[in-house]
Design brief:
The chain is an alpha+beta fold. 32% of the residues lie in helices and 21% in strands. Among the domains are: 134 residues, Resolvase, N-terminal catalytic domain (Rossmann fold); 121 residues, Putative Large Serine Recombinase, Chain B, Domain 2 (Hect, E3 ligase catalytic domain fold); 170 residues, no CATH class. The longest helix is centred in the N-terminal third of the chain and has 32 residues.
């Protein structure tokens, strides 16, 4: 019964809906006609017309296309009695994939918004924009103006105020964008093939001209300016001082300007072409739409050819200048120092770290250390055998627990990040009454050594400050040299390290040794990855604004053992003690001749500067 009543209610509702949608008689309904849509081709309404023209390169051969577009549309507007030409907005030598540098396009859009334009006429969609977002976006913005502004694309015969135009416009704009993408890929492939065959681009460069084959040949008059820049920098002048001097001397840039800036001088100093080399693809453009150049940090192949053309500056002088420039980032001045390596004694093969010099590479640390170890030959060791006397505990098979696994007072520790080093109070107390130390590195053994700095040492670092209760540790800022140590030890630059050290006494002097292979890492909890490290504990550190948790971890391979076998560990300790007692800490240091051994010295640079100034008719020095 209830079911029947429900069905009857539904039928009644449907019947009411049918009756309502029968509508009313046309006799009682007045229809107010809409304003007819304007026919673009037959309209007699007065229009203020803007013409947009563009060519994608500034090649002289494109000038004809550029002029033809302008002349054609001037005639087109003049033939229509109801059209009034506002202006021809033309961009020459500009890509259509972005609005970057398209000043006249932007000016045209601004005039539209200011109510100065009713209609835009252009040759094709690709002339208007090769970026689909720009194309459709600006068409919609113009259509939303009051009154709406239309765009007429002549080639495609599309008028954007036509209600059915957007689908066709979207399709053609997509094709235009993809055409730019294809051209970009073809160009990149062409450049890659050229570079693989050693065919490099040779843009105009101060100091060089091009011969009939496009090869770089030295322009001796301009080369004097280049040599003057390099020798002045080697002598010790800054880029700004050199720029000011060149401006005073009225030496011309490649473009014929007499004004020099520090940036233009630096650009010359960092250009490898002056030593005869070519390094191709220093930058690249990852996005063909915005054309923004990006420094190539190994994202794309690079190609280097040495001796590509005649050099103006020696390769030794060029690389010495690069080291000086890198070191200048840390506000360190002066001529680049020699690398000092310990030749004799217990620290033989250790390289003294220069605290203010960022110019040395990890390879030079290895080369310097090896240079004094050439007389050392490695003798294969015999299998380690242990005989245990009767009555004594047999500890074969037992391991000595790594000190890193134990938390106890009295440990000597060194904490190091990419920019700072800090020793704990125990370390400072082990070399008492010492406020300045020297840091030495043995790259082969992966050991950092700390010793008391001698009087007037150029390598001294202040590691403590005097307090009432004795010396207290002081942070050592080392942004100049620490990044290279990270590379020497193959460390991860995103983490901090902590090393437990040991004390050795040699010849009455104390040194601290820290083995980089035994370093623990300190990682922010959010960045901790268990596949790289194993956690030992979590420590909480106070920041300026919040408490952050860091995880102290050890290398994954340590999880398989406690440490060295007991007897092997004892043998190592006895050998190290014997070596330290037999050797003297007092040692002979020698300068390691790097590849800059033939670099022009400051005195030689001064003579070169005088000679160049004399050649260009100037008697006074810079």
């Amino acid at each position: 019964m209830a079911e029947n009543e429900k069905n009857q209610s539904i039928d009644l509702t449907k019947q009411r809906i049918r009756e309502r949608y029968k509508g009313v008689s046309e006799d009682v309904l007045d229809v107010i006609p809409a304003t007819p849509q304007e026919d673009f081709y037959k309209s007699e309404v007065h229009k203020r017309v803007a013409v947009y023209a563009r060519v994608s390169t500034d090649d002289p051969n494109q000038t004809s296309s550029y002029e033809l577009q302008k002349n054609h549309y001037e005639d087109l507007v003049n033939r229509r009695d109801n059209w009034e030409l506002v202006d021809i907005y033309a961009d020459e030598g500009i890509s259509g994939t972005s609005l970057q540098h398209r000043d006249n396009f932007v000016r045209m859009i601004d005039d539209c918004r200011a109510g100065k334009i009713d209609l835009i006429v252009t040759k094709s969609v690709s002339r208007f924009a090769r970026n689909i977002i720009d194309c459709i976006g600006y068409v919609r913005q113009l259509k939303a103006e009051n009154p709406p502004i239309g765009v007429y694309f002549e080639t495609e015969n599309i008028f954007t105020l036509d209600e059915n135009s957007e689908m066709a416009l979207s399709f053609i704009a997509t094709l235009a964008q993809e055409e730019s993408h294809s051209k970009s890929e073809i160009m990149n492939a062409s450049i890659e093939m050229r570079f693989k065959r050693g065919i490099f681009l040779t843009p105009t460069l101060l100091g060089y001209d091009h011969d009939e084959n496009g090869n770089l040949v030295i322009n001796e008059d301009e080369a004097k300016t280049v040599r003057l820049i390099f020798f002045s920098y080697l002598y010790g002048y800054t880029t700004q001082q050199i720029a000011d001097a060149l401006t005073d001397l009225e030496r011309l840039t490649k473009r014929g300007n007499v004004f020099w800036s520090a940036a233009s001088v630096l650009q010359i100093l960092t250009n490898e072409r002056y030593c005869g080399d070519v390094l191709a693809r220093k930058t690249f453009t990852p996005n063909y739409l915005n054309h923004k150049s990006k420094k190539n940090n190994h994202e794309r192949n690079q190609y280097r050819q040495k001796g590509h053309h005649d050099a103006i500056i020696t390769r030794e002088d060029y690389f010495a200048v690069q080291k000086l420039i890198r070191n200048a980032k840390y506000r360190n001045k002066g001529y680049f120092p020699e690398m000092q390596v310990v030749k004799t004694g217990y620290l033989k093969g250790y390289v003294v770290v220069h605290p203010k010099w960022a110019g040395f590479s990890e390879n030079e640390y290895y080369e310097a250390s090896s240079s004094v170890l050439s007389d050392v030959s490695k003798i294969p060791s015999k299998p380690f055998e242990v005989q245990v006397a009767k009555g004594k505990f047999d500890l074969r098979g037992y391991e000595v627990v790594r000190s890193q696994f134990l938390s106890r007072t009295g440990q000597i520790t060194l904490s190091i990040s990419l920019s700072k080093i800090l020793f704990n109070r125990v370390a400072v107390m082990k070399i008492p009454e010492t406020q300045k130390i020297e840091i030495l590195v043995h790259p082969g053994k992966r050991i950092i050594a700390i010793r008391k700095a001698t009087a007037n040492s150029r390598f001294a670092l202040e590691w403590s400050k005097a307090m009432e209760r004795g010396n207290s540790p002081k942070i050592i800022c080392g942004s100049a040299f620490i990044p290279t140590l990270y590379k020497v030890f193959s460390w991860n630059q995103s983490v901090q390290y902590k090393i437990i050290g040991k004390l050795r006494k040699c010849g009455g002097e104390s040194i601290l040794l820290f083995n980089a292979s035994d370093a623990l890492v300190s990682i922010e909890k959010d960045n901790f990855k268990t596949n790289e490290y194993s956690s030992t504990k979590i420590e909480t550190t106070n920041g300026h604004r919040k408490r952050s948790k860091r995880i102290v971890a050890f290398p994954k391979e340590w999880a398989d053992s406690f440490g060295d076998e007991y007897y092997e560990s004892q043998a190592k300790e006895e050998l190290e003690n014997a070596e330290c007692q037999d050797g003297l800490l007092a040692d002979e240091q020698v300068a390691f001749a790097t590849d800059e051994g033939n670099v022009t010295s400051p005195a030689q640079a001064a003579n070169e500067i005088k000679g160049i100034l004399k050649d260009i008719g100037v008697s006074d020095e810079l």
